[in-house]
Structure formats: C-alpha cells, structure tokens
Recover the amino acids of this structure.
C-alpha cells in the first residue's frame, strides 16, 4: 500500500470527486441487494400468497429502484473517471518536471524508451486503478457485506453452510496476488525495454541503414518482443491456473446452498422465495470474490506502475540551487578553475586531475588534446552539468554554486559538436534560450552567426519549419543556427565544443569568421582538434588523460617542442611537405 501512500499527493486534492462517486456507488450497491428481496416477495407473497393486487406496486417499485440505480451508475462512473483523469494529469506534469530537473548523471544511465513507457503506459496503468480499482474495492465491501446481512436475516444456518467454502477462495486469491504482482512488474519492465529498442532504432536509423544492419536490428527487436510475449504468456498462465480454481470453489458453495436450502424448503423452515433470493445473493458474494482476481490484477498492475513512477519521482537530484543563490546577475565572465578533480559517478577512474587555469573576462581559451582527454568534461563542469569531486570553479570571483542554475546557464552559451534542433520554426530554434527575444534580436543573432543569408533563401525564411533533428539543413547550416541560438541569450561566456568539426573547409571559414564577431567581449572556450580553430587563443591548454600537460599561446607552445608541437607537425608541416612534393 505504501506505493499508493507515497503517491497520495496526486490524488488527494481531487478527493471530492472520489467521495461523491463513492456516495453514488453506495446507492448503486445498496439497490443491487434490494433486487433479490423484491424477487423473494414476488414469489412468496404474490405468486404463492395470491396477493395479485401487489403486482402494479411491485412493478412500479422495481422500475423506480432500477431507474435510480441507472442514474447513480452514470454519475458514479463519470465522477470516478474524473478523479482518475485529474489525478494522472498532475502526476504526468510532476514526472515531466522531475525529468527536467534531473541532472546529466541521471540521463547517463537512463533509457529514453523506458522513460517514455513510464510516462505513458505506467501512468495509464495507475489511472485505471485510481478510476476503477478504488471503487471496485468499496463495491466489494458493500455488496458482499449487504448480501451477507440479508442472507443472515433469512437464515443464519443456511448462510453459514453456504459461505463455508469462502475461506478456501481467499487462500487462492492470496496466492494469486503473490504470483501475479512480480509477473506484472516483469511485463512493465519488458515493455520499457521494447520501447527503448524502438526508440533507439528510430533515432539511429541513419547508422543502421548506412551499415546495412536492418536484419540484425529486426532480430534484436524480435528478441525483446519475444521476451515481452513470454512475460505476458507467463502472466496469462497464472491467470488461467487460478481463476478456474476460484470458480470451482465458488460452485461448491452453490451446490451446498441448493442441497441444504432445498432440504430446508422441503421441511418448511425456509420459504421457496427465500431460497431463490439466496441463490441470487450467493452470486453477489461469489462474483465479487472471484472478480477479486481481476481487481487484484488491476491493483498489481497499478502497484507495479506506481513503483516505476516513484523510481523517477524519487530519483536523487544531484544538482540543484542552494539557498540564497544569486539570481539574474549579469556576469563579466572571469572564469577560474582551482585544482579541479572530477570523476563520473559510474566510473572508477578520475577523468580530470588538478585542473587549474585563469580565464580573464573577454579572453579566449583553447582546449586541445586526444579524444577522451577530458576537454568536454571541463566545460560540462563550468555549466554545472556535473559537480567536481574536488576543487573550485569560480566566475567573477564567486563559486559557480553561488549563482542560481538559471543565471549561470543563461550566461554560458554552448555550441556543441552535435546540434539538436527542435521540430519547430527556425525563429523558435534561435530564440529557444530566450523566447521573449524580439524579431530584430533574432535576426541580429543570425546575421552575426552568418546564418541570415541562407535562412532568407528558405521558402518561409525564419518561419521555415524544421523536421525532427533539423532535417533539411546541412551540417554547417545547423551549426550556424546553433551559434545564433547561443548568442541570442547574449552570454558572457561562450563555449564552442568542436563546433566546426562536422563541416567542410569553406563552411569552417564562414563559421570562423562569424565566430570572430561573436566572440568579441565574451570569454570563449574553444575545444578543437584542428589547430587552425584555436591558434589565436590567449591561452591554449593541452590535455592528456585528464591533466593539463602544456599551456601557453600558440607561439610559445610551438617553440616548446612538446605535445602541441607534435600535433602542429602532423597538421601543418607534414601537410606542407606533402603539398610541396605535389607542386614539384
Ligand atoms: N557521461 C559519462 N559517463 C562516464 N564517463 C564519461 C562520460 N562522458 C565522458 N566520459 C569519459 O570521460 C573521459 C573524458 O571524456 P571527454 O568527453 O571529456 O573527452 P574529450 O577530450 O572531450 O573527448 P572528444 O575529443 O572525443 O570529445 C573519457 O574517458 C570518457 O570515456
């Protein structure tokens, strides 16, 4: 029950709907039990007692009772549905908000497809129980309770004989629940994996096709699908094993009723109408008990879903605003790293060791080094996507933790190697970081990123709709839109993470030109593999296995004859030698 307790803040606010639906449920359930009583009166008083003048009144009474029942059923269903729908509306919002707050380290291990299935199938599973499960439980208590009372009123001994088999059904129901709950959790998890497979395949369809891996992918999907099928079949087998057993025990009750009840009618201690009423009433007890399997089924699904939802809701938020943080502060962009050491939560080894540097406001810092040497990790720490394991990062002489995340990130513009564009207009993509930006500001940002001209050549200019992942644009165009997006927020610090790696020389030249303009007055970090991209930096940091092994300007580093010189030689001298050979 603790799952439902933990999630109560989502459904308790709508308890009014629930309470009213329960009121109408009580009316409905109460009326259900009146039906056998009317039947008993009709047989014993009207048919056998010869009181035929009662017929119109009994008919009218019966009609009225049924009309009230129909109306109550309508209102009850409507309100129960409202209760469920409103509850999961806030639950879905809370989950989405949580996903926005969770840090990078959570997403490093999360699977998109699985998260999607939590936000859709699991939320629905939970809604179904909130809408119908709660009322089923109450209906069970009322109908079974009221039926037992009426039966007792007619004959205590017959009631006791009839319900003698019920404890056995309860044992079966209990065992059913114990087996079916883990089975449902298995189904949900398997469905999450199936979703992940589909999502990853669609996202990576270019790679799949480029490497002709369609058949391999189909086989892999088949494996996940097979697992899902097996889990479902297993659950179905539990169901088919226990349900007939419950029905069999239920039918033993009916046999006992007919045998002992028939004997009582024959010896005159029970009226025939009462036996008929008993026959109806016993099913009012048996059906809900057997149906308990279905209710438990629903409950188990909802519990399994609720657990998966709680896993998201209760996931630890590692990066958040501390108290009294600085809001809306304009920064100068003076960045200091002091002995920063860092390791990813999932990894044993540190990826950054004792990183220290001072980047005065408006300066340009270049980061170069082999892949995996830690360049991206440094700038991820600056945006507080992760927290350092040791050491301090300061901007304008304050620890970055003293600024609100909003302030910090609005002052750090990032252009990544891989650009993500939303399936919306070019205008909205550029203004994503500052939706209130005026059209002139958007155009200005695009002009400075050297994107304005090609945007104007598009059919709808700035209103051109982009497909998912920015289909319809070349790598260089996407990159320039990303640069426009970064400068639209007018950040004090600009990070260009391999921003020109995916483009040809001519486009790189265009982007470099645009960047010269954009970098003016901002502290800029350029991560690059090409020396041409960062040779004008005020300081270049050469990284190797998470350590700064060399630092200085381009010229200083060249004369030092170290790692930088070696990269330079590979990229320039050898190329020049080759070119000269070619000319000769
Ligand atoms: N999210 C992550 N979780 C665990 N380890 C990571 C994560 N991101 C990077 N790493 C590891 O940290 C190390 C540094 O990676 P980083 O991305 O900072 O290198 P890089 O110098 O930017 O590489 P590249 O030039 O290829 O972009 C690598 O060994 C990498 O495997």
């Amino acid at each position: 029950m603790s799952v439902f307790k933990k999630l109560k803040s989502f459904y308790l606010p709508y308890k009014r709907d629930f309470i009213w639906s329960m009121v109408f449920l009580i009316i409905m359930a109460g009326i259900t039990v009146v039906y056998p009583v009317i039947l008993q009166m009709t047989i014993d008083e009207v048919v056998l007692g010869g009181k035929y003048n009662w017929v119109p009144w009994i008919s009218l009474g019966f009609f009225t009772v049924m009309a009230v029942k129909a109306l109550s059923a309508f209102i009850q269903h409507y309100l129960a549905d409202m209760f469920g729908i409103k509850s999961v509306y806030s639950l879905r919002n809370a989950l989405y908000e949580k996903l926005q707050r969770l840090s990078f380290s959570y997403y490093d291990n999360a699977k998109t497809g699985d998260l999607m299935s939590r936000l859709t199938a699991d939320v629905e599973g939970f809604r179904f129980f909130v809408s119908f499960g709660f009322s089923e439980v109450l209906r069970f208590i009322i109908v079974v309770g009221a039926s037992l009372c009426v039966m007792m009123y007619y004959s205590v001994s017959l009631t006791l004989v009839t319900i003698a088999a019920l404890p056995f059904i309860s044992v079966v129901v209990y065992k059913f629940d114990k087996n079916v709950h883990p089975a449902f959790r298995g189904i949900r998890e398997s469905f999450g994996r199936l979703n992940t497979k589909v999502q990853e395949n669609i996202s990576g369809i270019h790679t799949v096709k480029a490497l002709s891996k369609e058949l391999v992918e189909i086989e892999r999907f088949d494996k996940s699908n097979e697992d899902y099928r097996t889990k479902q079949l297993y659950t179905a087998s539990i169901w088919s094993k226990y349900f007939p057993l419950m029905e069999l025990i239920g039918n033993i009750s009916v046999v006992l009723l007919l045998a002992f009840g028939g004997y009582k009618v024959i010896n005159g201690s029970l009226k025939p109408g009462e036996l008929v009423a008993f026959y109806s009433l016993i099913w009012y007890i048996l059906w809900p008990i057997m149906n308990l399997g279905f209710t438990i089924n629903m409950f188990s699904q909802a519990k399994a879903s609720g657990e998966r939802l709680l896993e998201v809701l209760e996931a630890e938020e590692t990066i958040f605003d501390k108290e009294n943080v600085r809001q809306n502060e304009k920064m100068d962009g003076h960045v200091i790293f002091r002995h920063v050491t860092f390791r990813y939560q999932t990894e044993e080894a540190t990826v950054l060791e004792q990183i220290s540097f001072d980047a005065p406001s408006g300066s340009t810092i270049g980061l170069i080094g082999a892949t995996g040497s830690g360049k991206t990790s440094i700038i991820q720490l600056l945006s507080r996507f992760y927290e350092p394991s040791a050491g301090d990062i300061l901007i304008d002489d304050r620890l970055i933790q003293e600024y609100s995340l909003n302030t910090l990130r609005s002052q750090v513009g990032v252009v990544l190697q891989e650009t993500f564009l939303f399936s919306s207009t070019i205008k909205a993509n550029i203004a994503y970081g500052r939706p209130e930006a005026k059209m002139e500001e958007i155009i200005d940002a695009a002009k400075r990123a050297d994107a304005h001209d090609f945007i104007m050549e598009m059919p709808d200019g700035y209103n051109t709709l982009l497909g998912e992942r920015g289909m319809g644009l070349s790598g260089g165009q996407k990159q320039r839109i990303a640069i426009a997006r970064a400068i639209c927020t007018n950040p004090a610090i600009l990070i260009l993470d391999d921003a020109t790696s995916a483009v040809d020389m001519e486009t790189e030249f265009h982007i470099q030109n645009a960047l010269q303009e954009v970098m003016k007055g901002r502290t800029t970090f350029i991560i690059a593999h090409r020396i041409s991209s960062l040779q004008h930096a005020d300081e270049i940091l050469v990284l190797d296995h998470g350590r700064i092994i060399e630092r200085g300007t381009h010229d200083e580093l060249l004369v030092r004859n170290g790692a930088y010189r070696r990269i330079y030689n590979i990229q320039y001298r050898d190329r020049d030698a080759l070119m000269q050979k070619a000319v000769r």
